[in-house]
Design goal:
The structure holds two protein chains of two kinds. Chain A is of the alpha/beta class. Chain A folds into two domains: about 1-120 and about 240-290, D-Maltodextrin-Binding Protein, domain 2 (3-Layer(aba) Sandwich); about 125-240 and about 295-325, D-Maltodextrin-Binding Protein, domain 2. Chain A contains 13 helices and twelve strands. In chain A, strands 1, 2, 3, 4, 5, 6, 7, 8, 9, 10, 11 and 12 form a twelve-stranded mixed sheet that branches. In chain A, helix 7 (about 160-170) packs across helix 13. Chain B is an all-alpha fold. Chain B has a domain at about 1-35 and about 310-518: MetI-like fold (Orthogonal Bundle), CATH 1.10.3720. Helices cover about 75% and strands about 0% of the residues of chain B. Chain B contains 23 helices and no strands. In chain B, helix 1 (about 10-35) crosses helix 16 (about 365-375), helix 15 (about 350-365) runs antiparallel to helix 17 and helix 17 (about 385-425) crosses helix 18. The longest helix of chain B is centred in the last third of the chain and has 38 residues, at about 385-425. Chain B is globular and about 65 Å long. Classes of the chains: A alpha/beta, B mainly alpha. Chains A and B meet through helix 2, strand 2, helix 4, strand 7 and helix 9 of A and helix 5, helix 10, helix 11, helix 16 and helix 21 of B.
Chain lengths: ~325, ~525
């Protein structure tokens, strides 16, 4: 009898453990920080899923993919959240991802028809500057002006890569010429966004490469309307951030539930004032006050993800040649 | 020398050296083995290698050359606040890169204090970005370290030598030729090699101050190979180049450096009769003031920027601070456990390979080491659970070359001076260590421990590869705050980091007052 009781106890204990399954989501570092969306997302999802959501931060988008490649099929991750369209093809090529059945009425500047990756937010890259500056309206007039800019290195930073593809999308074969003309405007190239933005706030340059949504942070969190983003007539490059589930996940149903949650109101309403990006699906309550004041580009550019790697390599070679002179 | 003729054994040092080499080379090998075929080294990578060598050589040269007059001035003068100044001089070295760069640019940038003053005089702002900016930043980081190491060289010249030279009527010039120059010949090559090795793995400083992709270093190429192309073979290859370059520098340094010391004295305080002239006073004073301004202004900028942010610090910073302190203390312990036996082995004249092994930790790319450790640990355990121990271990190995530079000269002195006496008294092994060697090396051990602890506090190192939200260190938390637009809180956290690192350094260093006091 005694053994039976112990056996029953063990059995019950495992049953209890099995009742709260664990969903592991790999994402980028700033998502999980206490100022990022992470804590609120975790709370909201755990209220409905009856599970333990484990958010794990690993560098930025590109580092995230490298991490998954290192771990391969044995990875503990069930879902990855934080890749962007520049990385999705490379991610698909690993064969680690599984399609999802999630669909939604997306409020993206372009149509979305990918069955593996679920978009959760987006933004335009833009040069942010202080209000009062007579900002240039395109890359040519920026290059002709004596405005000083700080940009990020495309090899180590997501916005840096965005700028590279932005110039390439707009100017094609003329891109090297634009970069050569821009070289005397570039104060310096930094490793990541934080360095560049920090230097800009210290007054080291007139403009910094960031997002059209960056002024929203200053407006909403700091009640400072002194920053704005320059609108370029030729259009702005888009970043669409996506999530996807992994084929080898041991919680495929839960992973699918999480992806559905990603496009729901509970997730989307957290994004604007924590990730400081536009939500992929505008929540019922609309965007937070302040977002209507942001610069609105008229035209969006995005290299199709299938071409991203080839275009990226060509653009990087041109960029290195033009700026290493 | 046969084993029997020495008061202490050399085996422990060899074991420590083998452990360090196995760790670093094992990580490299793991990365190589995990690699798929990549595209191999590109022309741009070789351009990166060239730029890296040039900037590292220039940085080492300028740091070393400028440190000599500064160390001499500090060795010759006694003034109120000298100890504080010497302690503060250690600060740039231990700051997280991003903080130090922001501090430097607050002073020397286009919108910095110096440019502001130039503006009042109607002059254009300072042009800091370029190769000269990279070298300036590296001098800012490394001049203090070079100064401390060379200063120690000065203080290891026994007081009796200066006394004798003064009695024989030696003026400043003769003093320089007889005592100071030979000391520098012994100390300086090692110092230059260490600084060269640090600058080889520079990345964010070189890129930011270099002003563009022309300032691509090997470390950036590794970063690119890893996260842009996922070409692990190229990343490992590039790290091998870093190691080979460091190895060459170390071999040259060992060859050039002469090992004959000054014999020993009676540990009396040094008095300098040659430096009493008014010209020498003005010269030394001028050098000290200039250097203090150069090194302390950016620190002041960090303090001014951080003070208003201190009350904004979130609770997570407290956790990160505790993590950082734990990591720092653990890695200090490991550094001492590795470096003491290694220093003894080198002092016994069995040093070359051991000294090279000591440099490995500094020479290899942190990204490659971190990745290698990840590959090794992943099949065995969850790398996240081991984030803090792994960080402590890697930080310890990286601090090893500095600890060796500090410990080796003194260990040599003690072994040479007291070794034969101890043997004649049949006092060897444990008793020799406890009663002769360790008490006489207290000062150096304190300095090495302080530097190692402070370095570990400030280093971002491999934690960024392994960290999850609960296990951040303070430098990582500074980056996270910046990444979340919390620039003011980040500045506050950076100031906290600076103060804590200094406090750690100060408390360890106090254990041995003699070398900075003399």
């Amino acid at each position: 009898m005694k053994y039976l009781a112990i056996a029953a106890g063990v059995f019950c204990a495992t049953a209890v453990a099995a009742e709260t399954p664990e969903l592991t989501v790999y994402t980028y570092d700033s998502f999980v920080s206490e100022w990022g969306p992470g804590p609120q997302i975790e709370k909201a999802f755990e209220q409905t899923c009856g599970c333990d959501l484990k958010l794990i931060g690993a560098g930025d988008g590109a580092a995230l993919l490298a991490r998954l490649k290192l771990e391969g099929a044995r990875s503990d991750a069930d879902v990855v959240l934080g890749l962007d369209t520049n990385l999705t093809q490379a991610a698909l090529d690993t064969g680690l991802f599984a399609p999802s059945g999630v669909t939604a009425e997306y409020d993206l500047p372009m149509a979305w028809d990918d069955d593996t990756f679920v978009p959760y937010d987006w933004g335009y890259f833009a040069f942010v500057h202080n209000v009062g500056m007579d900002a240039p309206g395109d890359f040519r007039s920026l290059a002709a002006s004596d405005a000083k800019i700080i940009i990020q290195d495309p090899r180590s930073s997501t916005p840096g890569l965005g700028l590279l593809l932005w110039v390439k999308s707009v100017y094609g074969d003329e891109a090297p010429e634009i970069w050569a003309d821009l070289s005397d405007n570039i104060v310096t190239v930094t490793k990541g966004w934080s360095e560049a933005y920090g230097l800009f706030l210290e007054g080291e340059a007139d403009m910094v490469l960031s997002y059209t949504t960056s002024p929203a942070y200053h407006l909403i969190a700091e009640e400072d309307d002194g920053k704005t983003a320059a609108v370029f007539d030729e259009g702005h490059y888009l970043q669409i951030e996506v999530a996807a589930r992994l084929a080898n996940s041991d919680q495929p149903e839960l992973a699918e539930t999480f992806l559905k949650f990603v496009v729901s109101d509970a997730f989307q309403s957290v994004i604007p004032t924590t990730n400081w990006m536009y939500p992929a699906v505008i929540p019922e309550a609309g965007l937070p006050a302040g977002f209507e004041k942001l610069s609105q580009p008229e035209k969006a550019h995005l290299v199709p993800s299938a071409d991203a790697t080839a275009v990226r390599d060509e653009a990087l070679a041109e960029w290195l040649t033009a700026l290493s002179q | 020398m046969a084993d029997g003729a020495q008061p202490v054994g050399h085996r422990a040092g060899l074991v420590a050296a083998v452990l360090v080499a196995a760790l670093i080379l094992g990580c490299l090998l793991a990365v190589f083995l995990r690699a798929e075929t990549g595209r191999g080294m590109a022309a741009a990578d070789w351009a990166g290698v060239r730029f890296t060598v040039v900037q590292a050589a220039l940085s080492a040269l300028f740091s070393g050359v400028l440190a000599v007059p500064l160390a001499r001035a500090l060795a010759r003068r006694r003034f109120a606040g000298r100890r504080l100044l010497i302690a503060l001089l250690g600060a740039p070295f231990i700051l997280p890169v991003i903080v130090a760069v922001l501090g430097m640019l607050a002073v020397f940038g286009r919108n910095g204090w110096v440019s502001l003053m130039l503006g009042w005089l109607g002059l254009p702002p300072l042009q800091i970005y370029g190769l000269h900016g990279v070298v300036l930043a590296h001098v800012f980081f490394n001049l203090p370290l070079a100064t401390r190491l060379i200063l120690q060289g000065w203080q290891e010249i026994p007081a009796e030598r200066f006394r004798l030279a003064a009695q024989l009527g030696a003026g400043p010039r003769a003093m320089w030729q007889l005592l100071e120059l030979p000391m520098l010949r012994r100390v300086l090559p090692g110092v230059l090699a260490v600084i060269f090795a640090i600058c080889l793995t520079s990345f964010a400083v070189a890129l930011t101050l270099g002003g563009g992709p022309g300032a691509t270093t090997i470390e950036l190429a590794i970063y690119q190979a890893f996260r842009f192309d996922f070409d692990l073979a190229r990343a490992a290859m590039l790290s091998c180049i870093q190691i080979v370059l460091t190895g060459c520098a170390a071999l040259i340094a060992l060859r050039v450096s002469r090992n004959d010391g000054f014999g020993s004295g009676l540990d009396r305080p040094v008095q300098r009769w040659d430096a009493a002239g008014i010209a020498a006073r003005v010269l030394d004073g001028g050098i000290i003031v200039m250097a203090a301004l150069f090194l302390l202004m950016p620190l002041a900028a960090i303090g001014l920027a951080g003070a208003p942010g201190l009350h904004l610090l979130p609770g997570s910073v407290v956790v990160a601070t505790l993590n950082s302190l734990l990591v720092a203390l653990a890695s200090t312990g490991v550094t001492l456990l590795l470096s003491m036996p290694m220093a003894i082995t080198i002092a016994l004249g069995r040093g070359r390979a051991v000294e090279l092994a000591g440099l490995l930790g500094l020479a290899a790319s942190p990204l490659v080491i971190g990745t290698g450790l990840f590959i090794v640990i992943y099949p065995l355990a969850d790398p996240f659970d081991l984030a803090l121990p792994v960080t402590a271990l890697v930080n310890a190995v990286m601090a090893l070359p500095f600890a060796l530079r500090i410990l080796v000269p003194r260990a040599q002195q003690v072994v040479t001076r007291y070794g034969p006496l101890a043997l004649s008294l049949d006092m060897a092994g444990g008793p020799f260590l406890r009663r002769v060697l360790l008490p006489r090396m207290r000062a150096q051990i304190g300095f090495a421990a302080g530097l190692s602890a402070a370095l570990s506090m400030g280093d971002l190192g491999v934690i960024a590869l392994f960290a999850d939200p609960e296990r951040a260190t303070l430098p990582l938390q500074v980056y996270r705050l910046m990444g979340a637009y919390q620039m003011q809180a980040a500045a506050g956290a950076a100031l906290l980091l600076l103060v804590l690192s200094m406090a750690l350094f100060w408390s360890f260093d106090r254990g041995g007052r003699w070398h900075a006091e003399a």
